[in-house]
Amino acid sequence: MPETAPPRPLLIGTRGSPLALWQARHVREQLIEAHGSAEGDIELKAITTAGDRIKDKPLREFGGKGLFTKEIDEALLSGAVDLAVHSMKDLPTVLPEGIVIAAVLPRADVRDAFISSKARSLTELPRGSVVGTSSLRRAAQVRRLRPDLRIADLRGNVETRLRKIKDGAADATLLALAGLERLGLAAEATSILSTDEMLPAVAQGAIGVAARSDDEKTRALLAKLNDARSETSVQCERAFLARLDGSCKTPIAGLAEIDRGVLRFRGLIITPDGSESYEIEVTGEASRALGTDAGEEILKRAGQGFLAKFA
Description:
Layout: E1 10-14, H1 18-35, E2 42-46, H2 50-53, H3 70-78, E3 83-87, E4 99-104, E5 112-116, E6 130-132, H4 136-145, E7 150-152, H5 158-166, E8 172-176, H6 177-182, E9 191-192, E10 207-212, H7 216-223, H8 228-243, E11 252-259, E12 262-270, E13 277-284, H9 287-302
């Protein structure tokens, strides 16, 4: 009788950046712990995405968020990998047919960190200072808070952006605190911005794990990793973004938090120059419905022509 080939390991698809690899390894560790798997039962497969290949131009010019997921989605759907680990804030609001988010891990700190050797905080930066960021959301809120500052495009992974600041490419930058903490770089933060100063990106700080919708075995494995509170908050925020049809050309921020069983959502849409903005705060229970309703209401306040400015 011919020998039966041993089953291949469960394969996790991920981008190859240091932060993406940290997140994928974290999911691997959680799966091993939850199911008592052997080390060799689960492996990583790094996949280069279009977003990784575009180094020096704004991603919004080439299609936005989907640039970080398309190749990984294709590998998942083809069976080349069994699950995929993503920063939830990088995911489009509409996933490809056949793919679902099977788990949202406990969310990390949602706040943005201010990094500079020129000042202790954003408010203390000298007039005319340059803030480097590729995020329209951050740039627009900086302009609203400090219209005297200048914005410069600053791209790259976390380590690259930190190096560029040290090399003088800009006087300051803003980065997600969660990413710094995961990479052991939290000490690089000069100060932390409150969510009242800088409302975070939708789903910032959350790690999502995608699987094929028809792969019941993998989805069952991932179910043990899902954090219900984080899932509820992220669903609410992504519903808000979906109602606004948010793209990388539209500065949108949103944060849902649960306090004593009550879901509180704050949302923001703002022009890139920071001169016009609309905010909303609502509370409720049903996560998706609350986010969708908040999107409806903020569009009424802004007027249907507001989003057309970004087309």
